[in-house]
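Our platform keeps sequence and structure together, in a single record for each protein. Nothing more is needed to write down the fold, since each code stands for a local backbone conformation. An entry from our holdings is shown next, in its original layout:
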Amino acid sequence: MQATNVELYKKLYLIRRAEEKIQEHYSEDEMKTPMHMSMGEEAIVAGVCQALAPQDQVLGTWRTHALFLAKTGATDVFFAEMYGKAAGCARGRAGSMHLSWPEKGLLMCSAIVGTPLPVATGAALANKYRRSDRVVAVFFGDGAVDAGAFWESFNFACLKKLPILFVCEDNAFAVHTPRTDRHGFESICDVARQFRSNVFEADTTDAEEVYNLTRQAIAAMRDNGSPCFLQLHYYRYLEHVGVYEDFDAGYRSRDDFLAWRARDPVAVQRKKILQGGMVESELVQLEREIDEQITVSVKRAKSAECADPRELCDGVYKCGL
């Protein structure tokens, strides 16, 4: 398990340091895209993606950074897209909220609540039809559970016994609105259990625990053929959209943040691998290599070329320009 824990930490550290680099440079106004930051949720995407096979497919919402980096590790492509450059995964047209790289298994991310859910369900249906061994994992916030697209997709997946993981990244808020002001039920999992599905829930910042839970979910899905619903709790460190804190907005307290920060997912995993036998100097060297990778990627992105403006409508079904 030590090797797995090291790989988990590399994912966690890469995501955190990449986003800290965004915070460092965002005020320069060269990244012309809104930022929905992933700080606080890293254990979820790292643990789930580590449990998936390379050929498995993922889809996500607009909080894309952690998912893209956990699935691909490609910081050159990531920062090129943040800076709107041709070397990005969408040649600079996706920005932060619409990252995709189908060849690497990231089918899509969308800035509209709930929209990846039916697409993910369709992908799972296609995989089953083709008798593929692929698993689909779709990530969404608890606010998406308020949308009909979730219940229609989940119902269809249960009815057709599709190989899909519905991964609910639950931070208890839909932007600023708590679940108590949105849900006419006590527990999402209790409702999900009324469907023919495998249901799992965890309140942990330990990426290894998420990894093990995901492996358990995949095993259950392969055993009985039913899709899985995973409700994984976390705390969003920064504002809903942006690179700053927002505790002065009044909808949540700094005390809650400090309680979650005390079990920060990056720090938790770092401590575990040191306790597992890795020496501090080796870990510091690993971190330096990741830091250098990110620094070089930002430098390349800043100096890279933008796409030709004539490409603007390439791949668009209909354009009025």
Observations:
- Strands lie at 57-60, 106-109, 136-141, 164-170, 173-174, 177-178, 198-202, 228-233.
